[in-house]
Amino acid sequence: MNSTFDVNGMRLGAGQRPYIVAEMSGNHNGSLDTALALVDAAAQAGAHAIKLQTYTADTMTVDVRHPRFQISKGHELWGDRYLYQLFEEAHTPWEWHEAIFERARQHGLAPFSSPFDRTAVELLQKLDAPMYKIASSEITDLPLIRLAAGTGKPLIISTGMASVTEIAAAVDAAQGAGCTDLIVLSCTASYPAPPEETNLRRIPVLAEMLGVPIGLSDHTLGIGVPLAAVAFGACLIEKHMTLSRGDKGVDSAFSLEPQEVAALVTESERAWQALGTTHIGPTEAERESLRFRRSLYVVSDVRAGDTVTEENVRSIRPTGGLEPDAIGTVLGRTFRQDATKGTPLTWDLI
């Protein structure tokens, strides 16, 4: 299993700078023009990839109005809605995919998608999608995982709701079908997700358990959680994106607006750079600051024979003189020679 791999000329994986995926989902609000504008905005914000979801209402569920197919009344965003009607509204028409992929490639973005059945994989193969994402709810659909893995493309698997056993089974299925380039995403499949249930401490646990790079599929509000995830080793961050949360799209309430995506791109790289090494001690960047530590200096003109006092010797910046802690030793001694204000106090002066 490879710890890093290339997509669209960028290196992904363990130890690499965070790879930022803008998830379009249903935030196109049924408009191809809006979908293309989202691609433009993602590129301008500096995202590395734009992700779709490739399904129709019929490939996801059946049109049955029964409580089994109905979202709970208390759901913050989609309460009481039936699955079929929600998927009808949120899906990205298949005939849009080619235009969206083409626009993304014009910008240098990597366009890819989450397939939800065989026909979706077939469509995405025709479009030469550079990788595939398995959504959290599909992590137990091992035949779908094997199908996507069998394409030879890199695979991203989201783990919302999944147990350790289910995650291990999904990874085994992917690897068994020939996948060598895999990233597993820590995820809380709640929309929006409470930060206190995001459990970022599981990121290094998953990395050690699975032996693959780990990222984060995040549905919390804002960018604080994904930035913290970078500190725990997340190499890929996926966030939903909307042109405006005010448009009241199906996912817009927990999506980032373009300027927030831009901030995520910038700040996640800073967070990654800040990880540095385990070195403790002065760094190259601190070389100049080292010159301005305190030391003992002559702070008024003195003559040979004068007594060292708190009035003529003090701890000041910069370095060059004796360490500040030597003050107790030098006070009361006698100067051997004349010294002017601003002279570093050294042992040969007293």
UniProtKB/TrEMBL annotation:
SUPFAM superfamilies: AFP III-like domain, Aldolase
Domain spans labelled AFP-like: 295-350
One of the protein's GO biological processes: carbohydrate biosynthetic process
GO molecular function: N-acylneuraminate-9-phosphate synthase activity
Domain of life assignment: Bacteria
InterPro entries in the cross-refs: AFP_Neu5c_C_sf, Aldolase_TIM, PseI-like, PseI/NeuA/B-like_N, Pseudaminic_synth_PseI, SAF, SAF_AFP_Neu5Ac, SAF_PseI/NeuA/NeuB
Protein name, as recorded: Pseudaminic acid synthase
Source organism per UniProt: Mangrovihabitans endophyticus
